[in-house]
Structure formats: structure tokens, C-alpha cells
Amino acid sequence: MLITLLTDFGTADGYVAELKGVLLSQAPGCQVIDLSHDIPAHEIDTARLAVARFWQRFPAATIHLVVVDPGVGSDRQAIVVMSEGRFLVGPDNGVLSPALLLPGAQVVSLPVPPDAAPTFHGRDVFAPAAAALARGELFESLGVPLADPVIRRTPEPVREDGGWLRGEVIVVDRFGNAVTNLHAVHGGDVRVGERNIPLRRTYADVESGEAVALIGSSGLVEIAVRDGSASYSLGLGRGTVVRIRDGVQDAMRR
Amino acid sequence: MLITLLTDFGTADGYVAELKGVLLSQAPGCQVIDLSHDIPAHEIDTARLAVARFWQRFPAATIHLVVVDPGVGSDRQAIVVMSEGRFLVGPDNGVLSPALLLPGAQVVSLPVPPDAAPTFHGRDVFAPAAAALARGELFESLGVPLADPVIRRTPEPVREDGGWLRGEVIVVDRFGNAVTNLHAVHGGDVRVGERNIPLRRTYADVESGEAVALIGSSGLVEIAVRDGSASYSLGLGRGTVVRIRDGVQDAMRR
Amino acid sequence: MLITLLTDFGTADGYVAELKGVLLSQAPGCQVIDLSHDIPAHEIDTARLAVARFWQRFPAATIHLVVVDPGVGSDRQAIVVMSEGRFLVGPDNGVLSPALLLPGAQVVSLPVPPDAAPTFHGRDVFAPAAAALARGELFESLGVPLADPVIRRTPEPVREDGGWLRGEVIVVDRFGNAVTNLHAVHGGDVRVGERNIPLRRTYADVESGEAVALIGSSGLVEIAVRDGSASYSLGLGRGTVVRIRDGVQDAMRR
Fold it and tell me: Is B167:B183 a contact under the CB 8 Å cutoff?
């Protein structure tokens, strides 16, 4: 059984190590796959956008354990989602929204054992649930159905006069590329403030050091600087307004 | 066979990659589990505290390879510890103390082959020993018994007048939580300098931005700031004095 | 089947997660081994030097997936190398040179499917090729032979008057050790600028805080400061000139 891990724990403190010990003790023979432990602390949306990228790329029956959990120990629920044949385990804070938003998704709320550390449900609640799934326990047996899990959404672009669609940067990646919430199918004008940025196929379609807009690998418009950082060079960060005209689809709805 | 890895190597230089190549070549079929490669360079105590957290959480027969080894190439011994049915392989500098301190722990000192690189025993001494264990070689056959391995201990709190126990911060985690060497079972006053910090069950028991003391997931008192960093906000670092009164057990002895 | 991963992606953005999803979906049962995702963005030579360290240490038939690919989407080729019984998959930008330079190495150029994201060949071109190899598809069937792959080499030292060999720092590791392109077999004078640095066996052969030259674990001369950082203390960085006299072999030719 595949169990993937996404956390904001870093690794140096040993929390991830404890969590892996629980998985490998309670689900002998499972294969634990690190996805990331470098989500910035408490950044639910960064984790959610990563989940949107990867969760369906894994085989059916994969168990995704996602622990970015600033509300640990509060009254937020601990949940398991079953969606498109995969399982996702984590806090009910919206981080699992990409899987929750698909038709047919089911959710159960996990009981919290009285001896669970109130600051470490990753080890004492989520990992045991993931291990139980890996051992073949039924999804339905893990908890009680939850009717209204927390959903977080990427903001949607807004239509403006003159055929423009106003979106924004939703994440800046490690390379300084600024990914927006705009979803384009073919060419069009991309504008950041008063600056026009050519929409091209790939980085190599402009000269080194020049800005380019392109349709990124998740289908969203992103702004890049070839051999550089668009975030740094153009001053782009989360929330920076980006506009596009023509060739525009509705904003991605997940 | 499970072989876990904890190092201060980072990954970009390729040292961890070499070590994994040795393990997978010399113990075909073993499962290599990364615990961390982000221990700060040469920080034996940070690694030791992580080891204390995880080593017993893994199944019996797990092999823990721990390489934080500023004394590599000196006359420090290379050791294998057998304790509670697990194996730990690493330098004799105290990093394996949590396993050494349990009754029944046994230790052998490994021979260093003449062609071992004097700067990389991880690859040339420790990984081959871990691989030998994974292949089923007997612990006793790996080296000669070592009578007095190096032990490092967490400092113990000191009793003061007025019912206070004076401890200190032993590690600051990624979230800025300051973990102390104080071991509390129930409520009590926690004080940092002249500041009183309420002892509560979890972060959510105080308002956002407020300081809270709680019993962390390893049973030790820690100081946190909800939705923030106690280390940053309160100026806490390793060695900062923290006092507690009432409801106090003896300090953790490992 | 073992598939190793070396990238400059970091992990927080979810790109590595997508790539693993492709591997585990298209090659069920393969074992994915992280080597590093912390290669600095676009640093082909840092990745190449890491590849030189590890690629032959893994068992025959291992598949090394190496994605440091600033030219993605341009007309650079995507290649698979078969060398010494191992496979290496990645961009044709020199990062795979250590395997290409051995006699008998073979190379094929991969087709790029029309629906591959022009910014993410790691997911859409390289991972599927690695998965195909893991499923047992023949190397020859993956693409067409490529006659002249791009080769990048470590610069070679230059002989100077007085028996000196002038080399340079090629990489600074995480510990601040400066690895040079000088290849020594026994004692000799090592000089950085006007400063003589003793060539010793290991760090422990000098006092704490003192500089030492030694033959590192890949056979190259490196400069270290015991319990410190040679890079910081001595101002060494990539390209800093280092000279050696006596006991000198030809520079490493890969």
C-alpha cells in the first residue's frame, strides 16, 4: 500500500520520523512516499495547491496523509476523504478541498483518542487512520460521516470592462514563477499593472532575462523570467493583480 | 528490512546519495527510510533529541543509521547498539545515548577498514555495517564489545527555593516552540524571567498571538505562541531559563 | 526496480509529488529513492558533480532520473544514457556527463509527446521514460540514437613553473569544505593565495579552528577548517585558485 506524506514539519525535529515509525509499525509492509515536509509553517493554501497538483496522479487506493494543521487540538475535526478511489487523511481546515470538491467524495470525521497528544494529531490521529486504511480497514468504519467539511477555494477571476479578466497570483514557486488563477486556452494579452507580457509557449520563446507569460503545467497562466525570477524582477507576490484578454476560459474551479 | 537515515549532510552534495547507493547495493531489497538530512551541521544534541523521539516507534529489528559525526577520522569509535530489539549504527559521540541508556543495551565497536575515507565513515563504515545487519549478519559478529560508550544527557532541572524547579530550553522547533527539560503532569505556574505563562492543554486554549505553556508530544513542557513563534516573540533560545512550580515530576532521565 | 530522483525542484510546490505519482502509476511496484531535490535552481554543474559521486554506487539496472533543466521546452534534447549497466534519464545539457564519458556509453534521444507541458518535461517526458525502463521496455526502443550528446567537464588544473599545479574550487559543500579539481596521492604543499595549508589525513589532524587540506572522499583535494567552515573563514568559493606541489596526479578527467 502506498502512503504519501505532505507536512509543514520540516524534518530536523524528529516529528516526521515519529509519524513514519507509527505508519511502519501499524501497517507493516506499506510504502511511505515523502512528497514534502517543506510546506511553510501553517500555510494551508500552499499545501492545498500542492494537493491539487498531485492527488489524482497516484494510483487508485493510494493514501495521502496531509498534515498542515495550525488548529491542532482545537475543535476542528480530523477527517478522511474518499474521492476518485483515493484516500486523503488530514485536518478539516480546507487543505483537502481539491478532493472534496469532486462529485461522489465522501468524508468521515475521526474520533480523537483521549491519550492523543493535543499538539500532535499527525502522529496520534492521522497516521493511525492512514495505517488502518493500509491494513484494509473499511473507510466507513473509521469514523462518522461529516456533512459539511471546510472548503477553501482559489479566488476566481473577475470580468472587467474591455474584455479583460482580472486575476491574481496565487503562488510563487521555487523558481520565482508566479502562478495565477487565470486559465487560458490560447494566445492573448497578459498585463501586470501597465506592463504587457507576451503570452508564449515556453521560457525559450523569449530572450534570457525577459519576462514571459505561459500556460503552466497545471493549465494556469504563469509569469516567468527566462533564466531568472519573475517574482524578484517584476515584484510579483501572492495577490498581485494580473489581467488577461482574449482566449480565456472560466477560471479553474477547484 | 527497514533502514532509517538521520544525518546532517543535507542532500545537494551527493553524500546521502552515495550512502544510499552503498545500502541498496550491499543489502538488496532493504527499504531505506529518510528521517532527516537537515540536522544542523555537527549538532549532536539536536540529532540526539530527534533520536529520543523516534527510535522506539519503529518496529523491532529496524536499523537506525545516524550520522552526525564531527569527529570523523579521529580516534572516536564507530559503534552499533542493540537495544529493545532495534539496532542503531553511528559514531560514539553520544548521539545514540537514548538507546544506550536503557537496561540491556549492548554495544560493539566497528573495525575501520584501511581503505575507508577518513572523512566519510557514513559511506565506508556505518552504511556497510547497517547493510550487514539487514542481510542478517549477527550483531555480535560486527565488532568487539565496547564497555564505556560516550553518553550525552539532557541537563536536569534544579530545585530552587519556594517550590520552583529551574529548567531550560533544550531545543527550539521549526514552529518556534521552545521545548524545555521540564516534565510536568498537571497544571502549574510557568515563568520565563519575570513573565508568567499560563500552562494549558493546547495552543487553541489561548488567543492568537498569546503565549502558552503546554505539555508537548514527548511529555516535556514547551512554550509556544499561538499562530506565531515563541522563540521570536519571547526571545527564547537553547539555554534560556524556564521555571515551573507545582505538579512537577522528576526531570526526564534520558 | 530502483528509480532514483535528483532535481532542483524543491518539494513544496508539488512538482516532485506529481513526478512520483507518474512513476508509481506507470511502473507499479518500483521503488522510488530520493537523492536530492535541493540542487540550487538551474545549477547544472552542482548536479553533475553529485551525479559523478553516486551513479555507479547503485546496483546494476538502477534508473537515475536527473532533472535540472533550465532549457526545458527549447530544442535541447531529452535523453536516456545506458552506461555500466545503469540507466540515466534527463536533459541533454551535460548533467549526465559522468556516465556519458565512460567507454561503451550509449545514448538515445526521447520523443516529446505533443501534449507534454513545455515547462515540465520531468513529469511528461523523463518520468514516463524512467517508468518504461522500470517496466522492462528496452533501452533501444525508447528513442533514436544520439551521436553527440552535450558534455560538461570539470576544468583541468594547469601546470605552472616551480612544480606547482594550479587548480580551483569546484564546489563548496554544506559544511563549508571547498572541494577542488586537484587530485593528490600523497603529501604536498597546498596554497591558497599566499597562505600555506597543511595537507593531512583528516580534520582531527589539526586543532579546532585551523585550516587543513585533505584528500576527500571522492579522491579530490579539499580545504576544510576543523569544526568550522573553510568557505567562510578563508573566503573560498567556486573558482577560487588553489595550488599544490608534489605528490600530484593528473587531474581527474571526468
Answer: no
